[in-house]
Amino acid sequence: MKRKICALFMTVVLMVCGMVTAFAYDYAIAYDSAYDADTDTVTVTVYIKNAVGVQSGSLFLTYDPDMFEYKSVEEATGSSAIVVAGQTQTDETLLSCAFMFAEECVESDCDDEGNLLLATYTFTPAADDYDIDDFYLQAGAFDIEDGDIADQLDGQGNEDNAQAEEDIVVRYDTDSSDSSSDDDGGTKWYVYVIIGIVAAAAIAAVVVLVIRSNRMDNDEDEENGEADTEDKSENTQSAESDTEAETETAAEDGQNNTED
């Protein structure tokens, strides 16, 4: 019984851990940069890691104009997403990349490593001491089925070139009359409440089973004790009967000897 309870407890723990893991996101924004000596250009390719399930979003790439001069951008065409990339109207050093799927990203939209390629920007070096990693990529919006989770995505690159969120995008809100809504995408608060309730109920069930198991063990011990007492009583009565029979036999033998 105790082995079954232990197995049940471990199952509950694994289920709860699995539920928590199910609501953890593996998405990440990233870029790769490379220098081509033949053309004296630096290319920066922007992509999303583990992109399956993404529906739409926008990314922003910033750079130091003293180090690079922006030349062009080429949107990736290897997926079913609509991609629009280029310079923003507010800041020529702020490059945007917006994408949208009709439904959501699937495996066939990604490369062999699960990455969704979005755009490749081309620059020419503007200084001798440039660094090809001297860019910064950040998410303006990142929509999945649960909502916008851009706040949960880390930027990549030189943070000195990072832009304040209010400078790169104004996030749309389904309810414009309540801009203070705590629904900022990602895992909703009620998901954690549900997980907590399920975990508490499962633990309570295990506790009840343990208590019942202990009671059953105690009842079995009492029954075994009573059975031992009865056995001892029967053995005592049997011994007394044997003693009386031996006494009677000895008396009869003594009487027969006397008569003889």
Q: Whole-number radius of gyration?
A: 39 Å
Helix-strand pattern: HEEEEEEEEEEHH
Extended strand count: 10
* Major sheet size, sense and barrel closure: 6 strands, antiparallel
Q: How does this model look, in words?
A:
The protein has 260 residues and is α+β, with helices and mostly antiparallel strands. Helix content is 37%, strand content 27%. It has helices at residues 2-22, 165-168, 189-259, and strands spanning 28-36, 41-49, 56-63, 68-75, 82-87, 94-100, 116-125, 135-144, 147-148, 156-157. The strands form 2 sheets. Strands 3, 5, 6, 8, 9 and 10 form a 6-stranded antiparallel β-sheet that branches. The radius of gyration is 39 Å and the shape is rod-shaped. The two termini are 70 Å apart. Residues 19-23 and 170-190 have low confidence and may be disordered.
Attribute tags:
27% strand, alpha+beta, single chain
Q: Which helices and strands appear, and what pairs or packs with what?
A:
Layout: H1 2-22, E1 28-36, E2 41-49, E3 56-63, E4 68-75, E5 82-87, E6 94-100, E7 116-125, E8 135-144, E9 147-148, E10 156-157, H2 165-168, H3 189-259
Antiparallel strand pairs: 1-2, 2-7, 3-6, 3-8, 4-7, 5-6, 8-9, 8-10
Helix pairs in contact: 1-3
